[in-house]
Amino acid sequence: MHHHLRPAMMPVLAAAVLLLATLSQAHNITRILAQHPEFSTFNHYLTLTHLAPEINGRTTITVCAVDNAAMDELLSKHPSIYTIKNILSLHVLLDYFGAKKLHQITNGTALAATMYQATGTAPGSAGFVNITDLHGGKVGFGAENNDGTLTSTFVKSVEEMPYNISVIQISKILPSAAAEAPAPAPTQQNLTSIMSKHGCKVFAENFFVHSDALNNFNENLRGGLTVFCPLDDAFKAFLPKFKNLTASGKLALLEFHGVPVYQSLATLKSNNGLQNTLATDGANKFDFTVQNDGEDVTLKTRLTTAKITDTIIDQQPLAVFAINKVLLPKELFKGQALAPAPAPEPSAADAPAPAKGKKKKKKAADAPAADSNSDAPADSPGDAADDTADDSNGAVIPEGRSFGNVVIALGLVFGLPLVL
Questions:
Q1: Are residues 95 and 209 in the same domain?
Q2: How far apart are CA 235 and CA 349, in angstroms?
Q3: How far, in Å, CA of 367 to CA of 290, rounded?
Q4: 221 and 112 part of one domain
Q5: Which residues, other chains included, contact 294 with Cβ-Cβ below 8 Å and sequence gap of 6+?
Q6: Is the Cβ–Cβ distance between 191 and 227 less than 8 Å?
Q7: How confident is the model at residue 387 (pLDDT cuts 50, 70, 90)?
Q8: What is the mean pLDDT of residues 408-419?
């Protein structure tokens, strides 16, 4: 029997082929370098500085690795781990350069942006690398702010996956005064000052009143912390709701915007899914879902979908991102929508229907005072269904399910019977 493709099914086939292509292109820089012992120190520090997951989360990228001798020279200067991250970030180019392309650079010279530039902390052009095709088949590399001096040369290609990732060896660490400058340790970072200076002043001011929240953020800073701070307009609109919360509710709301793990934007893009927060406590989940929406990264609770609008700071182990909405945990705002401005007391018709057969969790007392009598329990009968729906909308396909989806898609295309 011959199966003919119907025009209407062509998009399904295209999607299946694209999914297969995406799966086949996934790369892991740690595994690639593990096959080459001469790069073991470089590989170790990619993991230690959390650059490895950032590299794995990107495509069209080039990693300029150096051997153990070159790394020993860098480490002999005893830089902090934060400075090492800046230096190694300068060795990750946000473009694809295989061996062939390096020897065929248009006009002989190219200027490549690096992951150091992408952090937003590189001054001027310090985050760019000059690549020049020299005479005699050599290719030189140099930091753009190093007076154009090409201090390192191309040694060999380690692994190429066109045009996804290229791992090449260069002869030496690229010197850069900006990248080598002492980077502040996380304990020296003033969280409230950082947020206030970047459009989140109203949110930050609440930490002065609720010092327990600030202490919790600072205590997690050394081990790793990611903060999502609502911009001023968003938090101003939310203030009437915030003022109605109990003291413990206000504390939980602030802590809900902190995650006790350092995650860069690239890591968030590659690791979609549920995130515990500083407010998470046993049965009180206080979690939200990270989900990609194209190039945007969104944070979803049952009541809110906020978008990351800016990277305020990204210096391992601290990342601070601006978001366009206040995150509303279901534990505090059950079944309610956020009013854009101060509103009258909700009427009885607006109150959510009480859940059946469940006792209230203790966090229910933290709900807004005006609505406390009508709040549904922390785990209402609809919770399980909603959680399932949230999971099904996630951008990450669980391991083992990806190829099953492809088989189903191809079966639909060709009209084949499927046995599940």
A1: no
A2: 27
A3: 24
A4: no
A5: none
A6: yes
A7: very low
A8: 47
Dihedral pair phi/psi, residue 302, rounded to 5°: -65, -20
The C-alpha atoms of residue 266 and residue 229 are separated, in whole angstroms, by 18
Is the same domain home to 98 and 194?
no
Q: Which amino acid is at 142?
A: G
**Mean pLDDT computed over 154-181:** 95
Same domain, 151 and 270: no
332 vs 378: CA distance, rounded Å: 8
Asked, for residue 373, whether it belongs to a domain, the answer is: no
Domain boundary among 126, 141, 170: 170
292 shares its domain with 220:
yes
The pTM for the full model equals: 0.52
Please give the residue range of the domain that contains residue 57: 29-170
Rounded to 5 degrees, what are φ and ψ at 270?
-90, -15
Distance in angstroms (rounded) separating the CA atoms of residues 168 and 33: 10
The percent of residues above 70 in pLDDT, for the chain, comes to 72
pLDDT at 409 over 80: no
What is the mean predicted confidence (pLDDT) over 23-52?
Answer: 87
Q: Which residue has the tokens 């473009």?
A: 95
Measured between alpha carbons, how far is 45 from 240 in angstroms, rounded to an integer?
47
Report the DSSP beta bridge partners of residue 65. 169
**Residue 182 counted as domain residue:** no
DSSP string, 113-137: EBHHHHTT-S-TTTTEEEEEE-GGG
CATH code of the domain containing 64: 2.30.180.10
* Residues 166, 196 within the same domain: no
